[in-house]
Design a protein that fits this description.
- By secondary structure, the protein is α+β, with helices and mostly antiparallel strands.
- It starts with a helix and ends with a helix.
- The strands form 4 sheets. A 6-stranded antiparallel sheet has the order 6-7-11-10-9-8.
- The relative contact order is 0.15.
- It is globular and about 50 Å long.
- α2 crosses α7 and α3 crosses α4.
- A hairpin with a 3-residue loop joins β12 and β13.
- The chain is 30% helix and 21% strand.
- It has one domain.
- The C terminus is likely disordered.
Length: 318
């Protein structure tokens, strides 16, 4: 064997393992389990779907403990427009698990993934699970569940009364934030298991266009798109619920954009420019409170029965 052949063999022996490692790493980036985003602490820059860069604290500070008597509604000294802007900023970077609605906290508490290090360890509580989401996962979960919480749907089990769309969710199975290695239709998505009657209730829902997914969301062919309108304030954002054939699994996101822009990941990223304004224009339901009249906090809640009835009535012509 000549010296040049020996050299070539040695070079191949060195290069091949390196290439294999790179391929393995690329595969891991393509299919990252939700629990691999743990232990992200401190300040980190992130990019939204449009390349929007900002800095966010990934581990929330402990919730401020203040006696109930010292809570005040901030609506008395904040205009409606300023309250909406405050909600927009919270949607982009939500911090406190405690300020989520009771229903949103319940979804986290019933999540099927609990991120325990081993089978012998107890599962994480919902508050710790939310804390360990990265900023894009947290924003995705808050935006999607807030929209569902305030989107009415016909409740067939309650004599034709309305409930919220979040009531269709039996358990949370995954949350995908931004990840450039993944297809656009797998980013900024919430994956859930639905209750057995959810498909029938969606099929009877007003304000949703029913169809099929032919290209995107493989495995979830049944499509329920909340009807929206281009350039009509309060009607640009809308839920898109894609359901499996058996009606038990779904992937859910919010559509904010139209045309070709609808095909990119920024379409579903509430943090991308303009999207948070569209979200709050369609779903402004939240309560702004103040602690010690100095620290303002946004607290989410479900719309009341009258608001549900009004929203259903508004959607009826469509």
């Amino acid at each position: 064997m000549s010296l040049s052949m020996v050299s070539c063999a040695l070079m191949l022996a060195i290069l091949l393992p390196v290439e294999g490692t790179a391929s393995d790493e690329e595969h891991e980036r393509r299919t990252p389990p939700v629990c691999q985003t743990l232990a992200l602490v401190g300040e980190r820059a992130y990019s939204g779907g449009d390349g929007l860069k900002t800095t966010a604290t990934l581990t929330p500070r402990p919730a401020e403990i203040v006696p109930a008597a010292r809570f005040e509604r901030a609506s008395d000294f904040l205009s409606t427009e300023n309250q909406k802007k405050l909600l927009e900023s919270y949607l982009v970077q939500w911090v406190f698990y405690e300020d989520l609605s009771e229903e949103q906290r319940g979804v986290l508490d019933r999540a099927s993934f609990k991120c325990a290090e081993s089978p012998s360890e107890p599962p994480l509580a919902g508050t710790l699970l939310f804390e360990r989401f990265d900023v894009s996962q947290r924003a995705t979960f808050v935006a999607v569940t807030h929209a569902m919480l305030n989107t009415p749907i016909l409740d067939l089990t309650a004599g034709g009364e309305t409930s919220d769309t979040l009531a269709l969710v039996e358990e949370l199975t995954d949350v995908h934030g931004g990840n450039p290695a993944m297809p656009s239709d797998e980013q900024y998505q919430v994956y859930v298991r639905l209750f057995p009657d959810a498909l029938k209730r969606l099929q009877a829902a007003k304000g949703f266009a029913i169809g099929e997914n032919h290209v995107f969301h493989p495995g979830y062919p049944l499509s329920f798109r909340q009807i929206r309108q281009f350039a009509v304030r309060g009607r640009e954002a809308g839920l898109h619920i894609s359901v499996s054939r058996d009606g038990r699994s779904a992937v859910i996101h919010v559509d904010y954009r139209f045309g070709l822009l609808h095909l990119g990941p920024a379409n579903s990223d509430v943090r991308a420019p303009g999207n948070h304004e569209k979200h709050v224009d369609r779903w402004p339901q939240a309560e702004v409170t103040a602690r010690n009249t100095a620290v303002r906090r946004v607290v989410l809640h479900r719309m009341g029965p009258r608001q549900h009835a009004s929203a259903v009535g508004h959607a009826t012509p469509f």
